[in-house]
Write a structure and sequence with these properties.
The protein is an alpha/beta fold. It is built from ten helices and seven strands. Strand 1, helix 5 and strand 2 form a beta-alpha-beta unit. Helix 8 runs parallel beside helix 10 and helix 9 packs antiparallel against helix 10. The structure holds S-adenosylmethionine.
Amino acid sequence: MRLPFADHFIFFRQFRERFKTTGAIAPSSGFLARAMTGPLKQHAGPTRILEIGPGTGAVTRHIVRAVKEHDRFDLVELNERFAGLLQDRFRTDPTYARVADRSEVHVCPLQEFKAEAPYDIVISGLPLNNFPADLVRTIFKSYFDLLAPGGVLSYFEYMYVRPMRKSICRGAERERLTSLDETMNSYIEKHRFKKSWVFVNLPPAWVQHLRKDADESASDTSSAVGSETK
Ligand SMILES: C[S@@+](CC[C@H](N)C(=O)[O-])C[C@H]1O[C@@H](n2cnc3c(N)ncnc32)[C@H](O)[C@@H]1O
């Protein structure tokens, strides 16, 4: 399942034009996509799936293959170029078209996305290391608001990027990175059930798999954030 070369080209262009929100020079590898979709493939019964930050669809192409008859698949992408490419694919690519009646690409930042109901599986490719600390706090709250009780969040982060950046940065940037560590670690300590190491990716990445407690209510399925990342 190789990515079309055109996708790499489009992705690289968006990386240059919108570095902060694109956050990587290349789409995720098939190895990373498989690690991200592991919990989805194990989930039985009708499943509500949300992908956040699909980009050119490196992970999406693995998700669409796993979507079953009674599932629902929503995608939230703030970059119109990426969103348009995926919308086309749901119309023209047979693998995507098979599930087009159960899928929708929402062109907006996660911060503005209003879900109709909570999700069993949330898969996020957001480049959290590039975001302000208050936005990362709000995004994690949104992730967990969007999850149904017992639902699973899978997200990736590039290996050792934060500790390395922290060792060379000072002042406000160092404070931002420390705050990101605190936010992510607070969720990881409470909710992580698995961490996957993916070396075949540019750069190598960890996938964090977190589960919302089964007795935690999905109090609020809407997301509301005050910061701008564009
Ligand atoms: C690192 S790329 C990941 C792309 C793809 N999932 C992959 O693994 O190759 C990050 C993606 O998140 C999107 N993005 C960034 N901030 C976002 C936000 N606040 N809401 C929705 N999408 C966002 C970017 O436009 C980009 O497509």
